[in-house]
Amino acid sequence: MKKIAFYICILLLGSTISCNEKTFLEEEPLDFYTPGNSLENRPQFEAAINYLHNRLRFTLFGGINLDANFAFRYATDFAVNATDYNPAVKLNDYKNTMVPTFNVPQFIWEALYVIISNANVVIDRAPASSKLSDTEKKSFRAQALFFRAWSYKILANLFGGVPLVIEEIKVPRRDYVRATREAVYAQCKTDLEEAIASLGNVDQVKDGAVNKQATQHLLTEIYISLKQYNEAINTATQVINYSGVKLMTDRFGRHVNRPGDVYRDLFEANNFNRSSGNREGLYVIQSDYLNPASTQRDVIQWALIPNMGSLTIRSKVNGVEQSVSAIKAFNDKLAGRGVGWMRPTSHFLYTIWQNSKNDIRNSEYNIIRDFQIDGVAPTSPDYGKWYVKDGYKAKVVNFGDTIRNWFPILKKVTMSEGDFPDQVVSKDASGNPLVSPFGGKLLLNASQDMFRDQYLMRLAETYLLRAEANILKGDNAAAAADINVIRARAKTSLISASEATLDFLLDERLRELYGEELRMVTLTRMGKLFERTKKYNEKSGLSIEEYHNLWPIPYSEIERNVNGKIEQNPGYN
What we know:
- Helix content is about 40%, strand content about 5%.
- With about 575 residues, the chain is mainly α.
- A two-stranded antiparallel sheet has the order 1-5. The protein has a two-stranded antiparallel ribbon with strand order 2-8. It has a two-stranded antiparallel sheet with strand order 3-4.
């Protein structure tokens, strides 16, 4: 290379141009991206922020690894794995599965550090850009700070102390050490307190954008983790009292004229954003069917809806008793296609509702507990009978029917009648939709994926976070008042101050946030994973140990970190 440069300089000597070999060889990119010019102007920074939104969705809804996505919810007091129930494997068997070489902690660890790494690039480069206004610099940095804090919050909740990386990595490193859990939370606090000052209010930004109230909501949780309860109460109060948000108490949105209730309205397709009249969402993950920008499939419906396509009953066909399908096909009156990967625990399905009579969150519009059989001929005596009420559920045909092929349908993780894309509706030869005589269009197996917005944060949880802070502070009366705001909306009985305990709060979070909450992340944050899973999970509870309150540091991270030492969590050595 030096010889080539020398000869080029010689050729230029005929003119009066001088040649500096070092500067001559520097390329000036004019029409391609390099690390130095890929983040300079507003569109480039907007693309970088959009990528962070995309990676968040990827981490939660089916992108990194199905077992990993589902681990945010099951093997807790909320659900068991129904595909490997007998014999128990996956996290139905905590002791033999949740080990340092298990791929689930590794996938989640890596996915969150990808968000952190990309956020760091924006955080470091936005202030240095000469093509952004001062306001834009602060805004882009603030949004990236939100994503970094959200990712570190989950890492700290699941793993405890983790390596803190708060600058753009420009050269490979193998010398990481763990910061303490408190130091990680403290960094989240620093990030979020800075971000709040430069973010717009939720009613002043685009749907789905990072905003001040979502950031205050996240900061509330961080303050609780740092045992700064007064600060948590104050920050939650700022969100709750902001004029642009409110708990939805009246029917609204696209199906307001149908029988239903306001809780069902909160989860109808196209009802999540403010344009529908919804004022409860703080951060809404945007997703649209066949939108190239929403390519990440949402598999939560697929996992949490029973595998009714395989559900059977004993019925007489031509005088001979046989096993036959209970339904013609999935239909949109009930749900899209599910495979019953996760089955809610009996604690969730039954116990928590016993002292919450008439709770609309448990209404027929939100949890479907029975259906009419249409999989047999109209001449069959079984035709039109109710699967549960008429005793078919009690006459077990096979093991799968009792575990994953039937359990109550959680409507908030699927869509309503008429809302599924036309492409997933079964049709006859003339193109007319096929329907069940008992209501609902029949659906193809392609109805398993759901491209619909999802809440990451909504105001109801802000009330419950403030209640948690008050319980931990010792003000149970104030905690009960916040919990009762949520229960009043649900039209169920109110509680007294003496009933406002952490266990009651966790049950209330199940009643209000089931399906949407990252239950694993909540329980590890509170140090309650072992206690609640042991007590309420029919399978995972048989093998979980107290050390599982924290996940193992992935062995691959320890092994490749040759110039530093990352200590493993106790119990996993």
